[in-house]
Amino acid sequence: MASFLSDLFSRLVGKGSSQDGEGPSAEPVLYKDYRIRPAPYSAKGQFQTAGIIEKDFPDGVREHRFVRAETHASRDDAMTFSITKAKQIIDEQGDRIFPDKPAATS
């Protein structure tokens, strides 16, 4: 279980390897005042719905990372659904998804 959580965390912070069949990162999708970065990852022969929602604020960029239970047979299907899910999150929750502090920049 610890290995699974460590692997999941590594993927969410962008440390997944290209050997996982994930391919290159997708270009961000602009939706309202947000940037959506779909980030599905390989899990048990499927691709997990996941992504990052970003928004610029006067004090810096804030981000919200999400992973959902849905899996898909192809990376492209997971990318498309991750964008759809991010739009739903934005429509339902708006800026409430962000932490109080801006995301750290590297």
Notable features of this structure?
106 residues, alpha+beta, Double Stranded RNA Binding Domain, five-stranded antiparallel beta sheet, 2 helices, 34% strand, elongated
Structure explained in plain terms:
- By secondary structure, the protein is α+β, with helices and mostly antiparallel strands.
- It has a single domain (25-106), classed as Double Stranded RNA Binding Domain (2-Layer Sandwich).
- The protein contains two helices and five strands, in the order H-E-E-E-E-E-H.
- The chain has helices at residues 2-12, 75-93, and strands at residues 29-31, 34-38, 41-43, 46-57, 60-72.
- Strand 3 and strand 4 form a beta hairpin.
- The longest helix has 19 residues, at 75-93.
- The protein starts with a helix and ends in a 13-residue tail after the last helix.
What is the number of helical segments per DSSP (H or I, 4+ residues)?
Answer: 2
- Low confidence ranges: 2-6, 15-21
Largest sheet: 5 strands, antiparallel
Fraction of residues in helix = 25-40%
CATH top level is: Alpha Beta
Order of helices and strands: HEEEEEH
Structural class: alpha+beta
Radius of gyration: 14 Å
Instruction: Write the CATH fold name.
Output: Double Stranded RNA Binding Domain
- What is the CA–CA distance across the termini? 30 Å
